[in-house]
Amino acid sequence: MTTFRRIAVVGGGAAGMLAALAVRAAGQHATLFERNKRLGIKILISGGGKCNITHNALPRPMEQGFIPPEARFLRYAFHTLTADSLLAMLHAEGVETFTRPNGRVFPVSGSADDVLSAFERMLRRADVEVRTNAHVQSVLVEDGVAVGVQLAGKAMPFDAVIVATGGISYRKVGTTGDGISWGEALGIPVVPLRPALAPIYFSPPPPAHWQGVALRDVRLTFTPTLQSLGIPNAKHFNQTWRDDLLLTHRGASGPAVLEISRAVALAQEAGATPTLIADVAPEQTHQDLLDTFLDRLQASPTSEIQTLVAGFVPQAVVESVMEQAGIESGRKLGAVRRQEREKLIATLKQWRVGTVGEVPIDRGEVTAGGIALRGVGPTTMRSQSVRNLYFAGEALDVAGRVGGYNLQAAFSTGWAAGQAAATNPEKEE
Ligand SMILES: Cc1cc2nc3c(=O)[nH]c(=O)nc-3n(C[C@H](O)[C@H](O)[C@H](O)COP(=O)(O)OP(=O)(O)OC[C@H]3O[C@@H](n4cnc5c(N)ncnc54)[C@H](O)[C@@H]3O)c2cc1C
To answer: Among the atoms of ligand 1, which is closest to the Cα of residue 51?
Structure first.
């Protein structure tokens, strides 16, 4: 027979809310502590306010959003709360969803607030004790056992504590990595925190007139490669990505940049000064580009070379491409030498967009690193070294791709932690 248990859940984001719901579903008492005045602020800002809730895929493809060690760890949690079961919970609350052709699931209303409000209703109905404006100061541990939390200088006893305080990006919204620091202080292994799904700042910054310019469908990569820098498991990380590239006042952003930012940060950490490189005509081979050039040359030998380049990149960056190719503007196609033509084609396939100055961790959609997965049971999310202590969500060392993977990981690990804390605290893994 399970005895009645009082569980503290610290952090009212996706992971914490689902943990609290799972505790209540198992018939135990849940208190959810959130330092902000409202729960789920990251849900509100997710997907540009539209909230890419999850990825519409079976549990196994869901793991494809993560590097292999993280995917292996998450497998059980993804089975415990699948994307389908998550969506069923939302549908039952009247939140209709749709799936884009790329598998990303959004609320039909286009409003993240609708998603958050649905979870708030579920928590109220489940009788979760929600305490907002409640900044937990620490987890209380006695003789290797979590016994409660410290709030406003007061010790509050609990039978178990689930830490779901998130990562350290967007610190202004309340995610300051508290749970990761608590874990570290308790001797729980922690993987260094690194940016992921972040923009990239250039040094020197890009020309002012690049700001807001978008290059559609490029293949973005960087040099030097992680392999050449001797980074362990280099092949796990996305070092090249094909999607849109947005230029900003400080550097670059957009889906292609976000996807390779974790690897770029790793290269920087290894002492490199990476350069971002874009293939602006990923669909076309060298021969295709040569054919295009020769066709244009034949049709209009007196047209200027930059008009051809402008067919591949926005006007704002034409000059930069020409500069890299070593051809001055105004040259007629007919006057471009064979060697120059080759250099131009090579530049279109490998345009040096900018030199990386910083991958700002605070601007990342997620934080890589955190509570090390080897210190946490993959079926229970329970700490291997501190009893009755659980971790869920982005506080863990998981960071998925863009596409709803990160919220689903938070929902699923939260649910797994809540279930385990409520039903089977002593289960060995
Ligand atoms: C701009 C942006 C857009 C994103 N878009 C998407 C998207 O569309 N799809 C997707 O899948 N992912 C997206 N993500 C990532 C996703 O939002 C996060 O990975 C996910 O919300 C993490 O959930 P979590 O519950 O682990 O942590 P969080 O949502 O960060 O929740 C942690 C909570 O703990 C609270 N807290 C922290 N410390 C304490 C303390 N000491 N006491 C009490 N409370 C505390 C915080 O205030 C916070 O509310 C986006 C992230 C950002 C920043």
So the answer is: 8
Last residue of a domain, one of 359, 381, 398: 359
pLDDT at 378 over 90: yes
The one-letter amino acid code at 257 reads: V
Inform me whether the pLDDT recorded for 298 exceeds 70.
yes
Residue of minimum CA distance from atom 34 in ligand 1 = 11
In SS3 terms, 36-79 reads as CCCCCHHHHHHHHHCCCCEECCCHHHHHHHCCHHHHHHHHHHHH
**Residue 413 belongs to domain with CATH number:** 3.50.50.60
Read off the pLDDT band of 224 (50, 70, 90).
Answer: very high
Closest CA to 425 of 164, 105, 136, 161: 161
DSSP state of 102: T
| Single-letter amino acid, residue 338 | R
Same domain, 241 and 354: yes
Task: State the distance from the centre of ligand 1 to the C-alpha of 41, rounded, in angstroms.
Answer: 7
pLDDT band at 254 (very low <50, low <70, confident <90, very high): very high
Name all residues whose Cβ lies below 6 A of ligand 1. 10-16, 33-36, 41-42, 45-47, 51-52, 135-136, 164-166, 169-170, 174-175, 178, 365-366, 393-394, 404-407, 410
Per-residue pLDDT for 417 more than 80?
A: yes
Per the domain annotation, does 391 fall within a domain?
yes
Q: What pLDDT sits at residue 58?
A: 63
Residues 50 and 144 both lie in one domain = yes
Q: Which domain holds residue 301?
A: 199-359
- Determine the distance separating the centroid of ligand 1 and the alpha carbon of 348, expressed in angstroms: 39
- Does residue 1 form part of some domain? no
Whether residue 160 is found in the same domain as residue 205: no
Average pLDDT in the chain: 95
